[in-house]
Amino acid sequence: MTEYAIEVNKLTKKFDDFTAVDNLSLNVDEGEIFGFLGPNGAGKSTTIRMLCTLSQPTSGNAKVAGYDLMKDHAMVRENIGLVAEKMIMYDRLTASENLRFFGKLYAIPKQKLEERIDELLELVNMQEWKNTQISKFSTGMKQRINVIRALLPDPKILFMDEPTLGLDPQTTFSIRDITRDINKSGVTVILTTHAMTEAEALSDRVAIIDHGQIAALDTPHNLKKMISTSDTTIFSTRITNLTSQLIEKIKSLEVVTAVAHDNYDLKISASGSDSLNQIIDTIRREGGNISSIVNTAESTLEDVFLTVTGKDMRDHANEKSTTYNSHGQTPKSRVR
Amino acid sequence: MNLKMDAIKILKDSYHVMAKDILEFRRNRMALVGLFIMPLLFLVMTGFIFPSGNTQQHMQVGVVNLDQGQGSTEFITQLGTMNKNSSSMNFKNYSSVDAAKTAINQGKIYGAYIIPPGFSNNLTNGQSANVIIYVDNSNPQVATQIEGIASSTISGLNGVMAETNVLKLSKETNQPVNPQAMVFPYTPNIQTTIPGQTNYFNFLAPGLMIMIVMMAVMTGIPEAISKEKEMGTFDGMLSAPISQLSIILGKTTALCARGFLQAILVLVLAIIFFGVTIQGSIFLAFFMLLLGIFSFIGLGIMAISMVGDQGTGTMIVNLLMFPMMFLGGIFFPIQQMPWIMQDISKLIPLTYAADAMRKIMLLNAGIGDVVTDMVILLAFGVVTMAIALPLFRRSMAK
Fold it and tell me: What is the pLDDT of residues B354-374, one digit of tens each?
């Protein structure tokens, strides 16, 4: 019998007449990155808030890390970490003071806490900023602190609500890398996003959620395959030492149908299940330094969304509407 | 055992929250400056706006002498001598009643003494001599003062005159008498239970201390809680395995610390600059402060639990606080208020807190003397808390 990290059973949340989450049931496997994809107001954040014990469900129940959400608040809390949409930190305190404060709330022993803080700062490469006030940080730096804050108690499950919203491309990549590292160390990650790329770049499985209900749930690949008419895929990759020779080499590959580039960013259109491996092999063989490679099939996942919900996702995403640039970035402005 | 562990955990977490809040506050320079300036400003401001007693001095008063005799000159000299001590009046001569009246109406003088013709004659003929006093009744407060000063001056002059007459009589009849005892058989001897002079700041300081703590805590709660709610940092605390009680306890303690600092500042300034003396136990006074805080904290939590945002919360708290400030007997005794206001005062916890503080600090009252105040404050605190905490919990779980 497999133990699930999270078992959600008919979870419902109503605000007066409005049903934010409607009879939601799903299981999240231990160790996977599970993505909630949906427009604003679809019920993603409300679901996460309920699973973090921050919001009382109207009905239904869930087991988080094996503990009953309704009966065992304290144990649920000890086993989860939360990266909320609004950053959880105090501007007037330094990075270490922030981490220390939250660490103490988890009753981590002093010595262990200091070690943990150093370890986490190292994880996001911010040791030198340890004693600097948050107010002096850039948004990207803040988000890195925000992420490691959630990791303080060494949680089994990490909830991340729109973790790359409003970040520049570099920080977005770095946050995604950090997320993958965290996941690799055995932490189950629950992620919400309204950006297709984000869901696709990170998640093992994606639940497309609309009107508080699951419209579709599968791996990104299967979701796309479900409705795909052709097997063409677009890869967005960043190569720090890109040369025109390298571009020619990629173009000459059989699986590649087209290549477009902008500075160090490449968009490669390819078909065939082995296309990604072939492209990576080629780049590596030519000495190319891949800083990231993303399967940017936004349109495809968007098509999935369109198919399963019957409407265009961007219709809902008003103030945070997604604007994609050459490498499928998340929006620039963060609405507070 | 488990319960005890829980209690310790709650207290520990409260301490962390408090330490964090204080650290945050310490980093806020402007707020720190405000923290120190406010007590001084309050003390100086309230001290000057609400003057103590009839202390107005050097009021311009006219004198019109229509009498040509010696009696009127003597009267005016005596008036001058009597006024020398208090210097409450400055005299100015006018030649006619009309001139003096015009001067009153023009606001140049507050009132006038008119010595009518035949004043000296009446005196020498053993009749009582009239002095007419005009007052500016467009300004009731000054009019009352002039009236009071005039009648006390006249009665003083009467006394002097009577003593002279008695002395003269006793000499004529060869009977040795004490003229003062004859004329003033009764003399009041006013004593106070508080050593030192009657001082408005003595009245003001204890009330101001409790008020300043109240303001710090009451305005602080909506700020502290909704700010974190709006910033999103509240979620960080709530998703950690700590009790909501710890958050509210920690935050309130941090605010109390701020309030206490200000209260101590009020006390020190009042002692150094405003001649306030303390008779009672300072520890009991601070315990009373604590009880006072406990009594109105529930109201603050209630306010913030019922409204969502910081702005509305602050508004509601101000709405609660202003009547409390003015009806709580901080600036003037509630006994001076109309009966309906006195009744309303009795519903306000601040009234009891200020009353008890004053009794302890000025009258050296012990716990036994303020036990009624304490019970009322405790009851008020328990009842409001019992309503506020579930409301707070519910507002958090939204």
Answer: 889 888 888 888 888 889 999
Q: Say if B233 is an interface residue toward chain A (CB within 8 Å).
A: yes
Specify which residues A236 forms β-bridges with: A267, A294
Q: How many CA atoms lie within 13 A of B81 on its CB side?
A: 10
| Residue B113 β-bridge partners | B63, B133
Domain B59-183 architecture: 3-Layer(aba) Sandwich (3.40)
Closest by Cβ to B232, choosing from A88, A104, A133: A88
Instruction: Tell me, yes or no, if A336 comes closer than 8 A to chain B by beta carbon.
Output: no
The helix-helix angle for A244-251 and A275-285 (nearest 10°) equals 150
CA–CA dist B141, B118 (Å, integer): 32
The span from the first CA to the last CA of chain A, in angstroms, equals 44
pTM reported for the whole predicted model: 0.71
Distance of alpha carbon A206 from alpha carbon A33, whole angstroms: 9
**Confidence band, pLDDT 50/70/90 cuts, at residue B15:** very high
Phi first, then psi, for residue A35 (nearest 5°) are -105, 135
- Measure the CA–CA gap between B18 and B39, rounded to whole angstroms: 23
Check residue B193 and give its pLDDT. 67
Give yes or no for A107 touching B (CB within 8 A). yes
How far is Cα A159 from Cα A80, in angstroms, rounded to an integer? 7
Biggest alpha carbon distance in chain A?
62
Burial of B108 (0-12, 13-18, 19+ CB in 10 A): middle
Condensed to tens digits (0 to 9), the pLDDT of residues A159-197 reads 999 998 888 888 898 899 999 999 999 999 999 988 777
* Cα–Cα distance for residue pair A5/A15, rounded to 1 Å: 27
A269-282 tens-digit pLDDT:
777 778 888 888 88
Q: Give per-residue pLDDT as tens, B122-146.
A: 877 878 888 888 888 887 777 887 7
B239 contacts on A by Cβ (under 8 Å): 52-54, 77, 80, 82
User: What span, in angstroms and rounded, lies between the C-alpha atoms of B150 and A14?
Assistant: 77
Answer for the pair A201, A222: CB distance below 8 angstroms, yes or no: no
> What CATH architecture does domain A4-219 belong to?
3-Layer(aba) Sandwich (3.40)
Interface of B with A in 27-56 (CB under 8 A): 27-28
The tokens of B153 are what? 């001056």
Q: What CATH topology corresponds to A220-327?
A: Alpha-Beta Plaits (3.30.70)
CA-wise closest residue to B105 among B134, B136, B133 = B136
Q: ipTM value of the model?
A: 0.70
Q: Are A7 and A63 in contact (CB under 8 A)?
A: yes
Extents of the domains making up chain B: 2-51+199-396, 59-183
Please tell me the distance from the alpha carbon of residue A223 to that of residue A218, in angstroms, as a whole number: 6
